[in-house]
Description:
The structure holds three protein chains of three kinds. By secondary structure, chain B is α/β, with parallel strands linked by helices. In chain B, 37% of the residues lie in helices and 25% in strands. Chain B has helices spanning 53-61, 87-91, 109-120, 125-138, 155-167, 185-202, 213-219, 237-242, 247-255, 264-285; strands at residues 4-17, 22-37, 42-46, 68-73, 76-77, 92-95, 173-177, 205-210, 222-227, 230-236, 295-297, 303-305. In chain B, strands 6-7-8-3-9-10-12-11 form an eight-stranded mixed sheet, with helices on both faces. A four-stranded antiparallel sheet of chain B has the order 2-1-4-5. In chain B, helix 6 (185-202) links the parallel strand 7 (173-177) and strand 8 (205-210). Chain C is mainly α. Chain C has one domain (87-318): MetI-like (MetI-like fold). The chains are: A alpha/beta, B alpha/beta, C mainly alpha. The A-B interface holds A 43-44, 157, 186-191, 194-195, 213-220, 222, 239-240, 243, 253-255, 257-262, 266-271, 274-275, 336-337 and B 48-49, 154, 156-157, 184-190, 192-193, 196, 211-215, 217-219, 241, 251-252, 254-262, 264, 267-268, 271.
Amino acid sequence: xxxxxxxxxxxxxxxxxxxxxxxxxxxxxxxxxxxxxxxxxxxxxxxxxxxxxxxxxxxxxxxxxxxxxxxxxxxxxxxxxxxxxxxxxxxxxxxxxxxxxxxxxxxxxxxxxxxxxxxxxxxxxxxxxxxxxxxxxxxxxxxxxxxxxxxxxxxxxxxxxxxxxxxxxxxxxxxxxxxxxxxxxxxxxxxxxxxxxxxxxxxxxxxxxxxxxxxxxxxxxxxxxxxxxxxxxxxxxxxxxxxxxxxxxxxxxxxxxxxxxxxxxxxxxxxxxxxxxxxxxxxxxxxxxxxxxxxxxxxxxxxxxxxxxxxxxxxxxxxxxxxxxxxxxxxxxxxxx
Amino acid sequence: xxxxxxxxxxxxxxxxxxxxxxxxxxxxxxxxxxxxxxxxxxxxxxxxxxxxxxxxxxxxxxxxxxxxxxxxxxxxxxxxxxxxxxxxxxxxxxxxxxxxxxxxxxxxxxxxxxxxxxxxxxxxxxxxxxxxxxxxxxxxxxxxxxxxxxxxxxxxxxxxxxxxxxxxxxxxxxxxxxxxxxxxxxxxxxxxxxxxxxxxxxxxxxxxxxxxxxxxxxxxxxxxxxxxxxxxxxxxxxxxxxxxxxxxxxxxxxxxxxxxxxxxxxxxxxxxxxxxxxxxxxxxxxxxxxxxxxxxxxxxxxxxxxxxxx
Amino acid sequence: xxxxxxxxxxxxxxxxxxxxxxxxxxxxxxxxxxxxxxxxxxxxxxxxxxxxxxxxxxxxxxxxxxxxxxxxxxxxxxxxxxxxxxxxxxxxxxxxxxxxxxxxxxxxxxxxxxxxxxxxxxxxxxxxxxxxxxxxxxxxxxxxxxxxxxxxxxxxxxxxxxxxxxxxxxxxxxxxxxxxxxxxxxxxxxxxxxxxxxxxxxxxxxxxxxxxxxxxxxxxxxxxxxxxxxxxxxxxxxxxxxxxxxxxxxxxxxxxxxxxxxxxxxxxxxxxxxxxxxxxxxxxxxxxxxxxxxxxxxxxxxxxxxxxxxxxxxxxxxxx
Lengths: 337, 310, 320
C-alpha cells in the first residue's frame, strides 16, 4: 500500500451568499500519497480551487467541515498559529498567476527569504541568503546573484513562476499544491515549468496535488487523476486508465471536447447547458444528469456514491453504464491505445 | 491576387527616453510580415506572448498604426484608408479574447450588438430590434436576452454576443484574436464549433490568432508562426505539424502536451532532444540580433526562415 | 530615477511661466487699479493719467509683465500700495508662520489618519470601521469655516484654553524658548481644527488602499508561506498601502492652501492666507499677485514632490 501523506475525509467547504451557506466542495474524500502527482481536473466552478485553498487553510470566510489529515494532524481543526507552522514548511503552494502572486514591492531574495525565515528563526541572514541562492539555482534561474536583487516586474513570466516555485519548495515540503501553475504561461515555458516540477518531485519525494483544467497537462504529469464536477469527485483512476478507459459521462465529455489535433472530426463535442453557479448547484441525485438529458432518469442513482469499478478506479453514479454520446461514432476517435 | 493580402507589414512603436522624452529607439512589434489569405479559408497566426501576432491583427483592422507595408483586401489597398464608415471597416470585423472585459457592462445586449449597425446603417428602432433578434438567434441565444446585461450571461454566451456584434454588418473577414483563450474546454468547444458553422453559412474568412496549437490545428487551413515580430515558418497545417522545419517551430510543436499518458516518457525525451538541437543550432536559424531570417520556399506551400544560401 | 526627477522638474518650468502669466493677466483684467478709491473726486483726471503713465500702467501688458517677472526673479515683488512697504518684507514673516502652521497641520493629519485608516481598513465592515467612516463623513460634510468658528468659540473664548488670535504673545524676545513655545501654543488650535476636518480624505484613502491590498493575490501567497496575520499586515499590506499615501503627500499641501485661507482669517493668524484675503478686500494688487503666485508655486511644487516621492518608493517607477 502506498504511503499516505494527506487524507481528506468528508470535507465540505461552504461560502455564505446572502443568508445561506453553499458548499463549493461537498462531502469530498481523497487521499494523496507520497511521491505521487494527483491531478484534480474540472472546469471553472467545479470546486477544485476551493479544495486547494481548504487544504492550505487559506479561506478566510468559508465554513469548513470534515477532516484534512496530514500525518495524524488535522489541518481543518488547527488554530492559526498551528496552521502557520505547517504552511510553507510541510505544505508549499504554487499559484496560477506569478505576477500578481508576488509582492511587487519586495525584492526576490526577500520574498523567498521570508519563507525560510518564518520556519527557521535561528538561521543567520547570510545562511539564509546562501539558501536563497541555492534555490534559485535549483529552479534554473540564470545569474541568480543578480536576479536576487530584482523586483518581480523585472522578470519574465516564466522566471517569475520559477521564483514562485523556489518559494514553495524553500523548506523542502512533503506536499506541494500547484493551482493551475502553467495556465498563465506560454506553451514552451509551460513545458519547462512542468519538467521542473517533475524533476523536483523526484528529488524531494514529495506528493503533489496538481489542480488544472488542461487535460494535456494531466496526461503529461499525473500519476492519478480525480475529476471534479459540482463540488464532488465523479471519477478517480490512475492516469492511464482514465485516458484509456474513462467511465463517467463528464470525464468522457471533457475528453471529447478537447481539440487534441489527433482527430479528423470537424465538430468538437459540446456539453449541453452550463456549469451551474454555486447557488444553483444541484444537491440531489446525479449532479451531471441535467447536462446529459438524453440519458434516461432511471439510469441515475438516487444517492450516487463513488464505487470501485476496478482496483483503484472509482466512479460516481451508475449512469455511466447507460451513457453514450448522441452521435456515438464520435467517441471512438478518442479512445486511446 | 488573394482575398486578403498583407505585404511586408511593419508596425514599430517608438520608445521614449532621455530627459526630453525623445524617441530613442523603436520596438519592432511587427517587422515585415506577409500574409495571403484565400476566401473562405482560415489562416492561423501563432506565436507566444510578445511575438506580434495580436499587433498584426490589430494593424490589419486599423487599430494600430502601420509603419510601412500594404494591406490589400478584395484587391483594394486599405492600408491607410480612414477606417471610419468605409466599406473595409464594414467588411472586416474583430472578435476579442476576453468576453468579460470586451463587452461594456453598462450596456444592454441590444445596444452592444446594434452598435455597428448604428454606425453604418440607418435603421428605425423597430428594424434594429428585429435585426438584433435575428443575430442573437443565429448565435444561439434566445431573442428575449436582448434586454439583458452582459453579466447575466456565461462566458461562452458572452463570446457569442461578441460574435453577434462582429457579424452584425455581414462582414466577409473576421479577425479572431484569441477568441477562446479565456474559456473552459467545453465552452471553448461550443465557440469553435459555432465559428465553423457560421463560416460555412455566411461564407466567412478567418484570421485566427492564438497561442494554442491544439485549437489552431483544429481550426486552420494555413498557419504562420511568428517570433519576435517576424515569421519563422509558414505552411499548411500539415506542413507545420507533420514536417516542421524551423527549430523554433519544432520546439513549439514539441512543447504541446500530448493527451496520451503512455507517450509521456517518449515525449519528454523528444523535448530534451529538440531543446539540445535548439541550443546547438540556434545560430543557424537566427541572426546576430536573435531575429528570424527571411522566408525561403521549400515547397509550393511551405516557407521557412533560413539564411540565404551562399 | 534621476532622469525622471530631472525631466519632471523641467516640465515644471513652462507650468510656472503659464501660471505667472495667467495671474498677471487676471490681475490686469480686474476692474479699477490701485488709484481708484484712493484719491478724492477733486483730483484732476489728467493728473491721474500722468501718474498712470509714470508708473508704466499704460504700457502693453507684456512689457509690464516683463518688468514684474524681472523684479520677482531678483526677489522684488514690488511695493504694497496700502502698507507702503516692499511686498517681500510684508510676506517674509507671514510665509514662515504659514509654513509652520502647515507642518503642524500635516503632522496632526497623519497622526489621526494613519491609525484610524489602518483600523478601518483592517477591520472593514465592522463597528470600528463604521464608526471611523462615520467620522470621516462628518468631516467631509462639515464646512471648515463653521467648524473652525465652533472650535474658536469653544476652546478659545468659552474654555480659554488657547489664544484667539495672533501668532505669538507680543513682547517676547525672538529666539528664546518662551518665544518658541508661544508660537507653538498659538498655532495649535488652528492646526488641530484644520487637521480634524481635512484628515477624512487621507483616512478614506488609506482605508480603501488597505481593503484593496488585502484582496491581492500576493497576500494569499504570504499566508501560504506561513506568515502570521500580524506579519501579513505589517510586512505586506501596510507597506504596500502606505506607498500611495506617501505619494499623496504633495497633494496634501495643495489642500492645505485652501484650508489655510479660512483658518488664518478665522483665528486671526498672520499668515499668507490672511494676507491674500486682506489684499483682495484692499485691492492691493502687487500683494495679491505675489501671494497668488506663491500659492500657485506651492501647489506645483507639491505635485512635483508627490511624483518624486512616488518614484523613490515604488520600484516599478524607479527603474524607468
